[in-house]
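Lab notebook: predicted structure, single chain.

Context: the supervisor wants predicted structures on file for every construct in the current expression panel, including those that have not yet been purified. This is the next one on the list. No modifications to the sequence; it matches the entry in the shared construct table.
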Amino acid sequence: MTTEVYQPKPQERADVRGNTAELRPVRRAVDKAYARATGSQLIPGNGVRLLVDAKENYPAWLEAIKNARRTIHFESFIIHEDDVGREFAEALIAKAREGVRVRVVYDWLGAVGKTSRRFWRNLRDAGVEVRGFNPPRFDEPFGWFNRDHRKMISVDGQLGFVMGLCVGRDWVGRPEKNIDPWRDTGVEIRGPAVAEMDAAFARAWETSCGEKIPAEDLPAPETIGQGGDVSVRVIATEPNSVGLYRLEQLVAAGAREYLWLTDAYFVGTTMYVQALRAAAQDGVDVRLLVPSASDIPVVSALSRANYRALLEAGVRVFEWNGPMIHAKTSVVDGKWARVGSTNLNVASWMGNWELDVSIEDEGFAKQMEEMYCRDLENATEIVISERRRVKPLGPPPAHGRRRQRTSRKGSTSRAAAGFIGVGSAVGAAITNRRVLGPAEGRLMWMAGGLLLALSFVAVKWPHAITYPLALIGIWVALALFIRAYKLHKGVTVRSEKEHGDPPPPPPPGRMKDEG
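Prediction complete. Output recorded below exactly as produced.
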């Protein structure tokens, strides 16, 4: 299919880009709203470069690592132990042996089954400081839901990268097997915004090991020279902060011309889907590009369950025809764009550590527009048929290359988002609070079958249900006692420090007679 860059009507463009003086108060108000939503200020004076796929990202990262002189901060959800991961490991080891301070944070659960202990041990033995984020803890039985899903690199506090890519062969493809690489997006940043990236890394580092990064390794924004004339907002979210979730709703509410989204694991909440619907119904060109297959099957089903509500409101939905589109990006009205690690689902918005950047620059937004239109040339649009069924608009094009079978090994956080969505759909079916479609009908079959199987097991072998539940209950109870003890002990220690010795009496000459 062919697409063109959206061209607003002349009057629309005049309304949006009219008198600059009149728009300044509005822009200040918008910036204030974005800052309050994200807890992050807009930082001017940066240079940015859009990096498309591993073919542009990986060489840029390796070149930056090669040229590092003082520090390298590397944070990634997954670093695969394959030829790509080993290439990056060798690059980091070489810099550590040269005396560069190299710090790496990886997600403990993300690495399970993908990276061995020997891989990390080799890095540590060479002088690389490595931390695994959030390994299992007895006193936090459900803490494993909160993952470090960030992907970032900073070098010498001057140069940084924020992206959706992890490190691994999937992003490079397998030409010898005629398998295309995963589609993904990153951005290179030079300038004071890199200091905010380092500050976000420092918080994740301290959380993972309890150690603070020395101040000399964390330059302040004002000490970094300008890299260009682009304004960047670094959005570092942590569990329950929901900063990007609030921002995405503000962006949808404020879009005037178009809102184009790409997401790998879209499971929109009711509020967010309504925000997209409202924008489309108000005449905004809203488009959503998602994969046609996912490593979490339930996520694909839930993503499609949202199609009908979006399509009926005028949102255009496209499915990627390649092996996987893993990018997480937005571009709005030719002025604002976002690139990063956050997926449009509950796990990313509310449960994970994520890192994104929003960029307010017409030149960069133009590049994002063009990239989006190129992506749609390899996508199939989803429509509602005459029989009111959601279906692809024609078969996907044949490219003469094999499609890689999508791995079924998905992350726990994405699975959690999927199960939350299943619960929402089941609740809607029981309470009849919203209309459900055929895609959600399949979820009902899955949920009903699972409940029936569990009920049969409970009747036939009751101990198979009661014993695990009892063990989980004991585990949670002990974890609560441990946390309560730690909190009580912490309060006691603080109280002793605060109240320690009684304050000295005032000097005699200053005392007042209260008689």
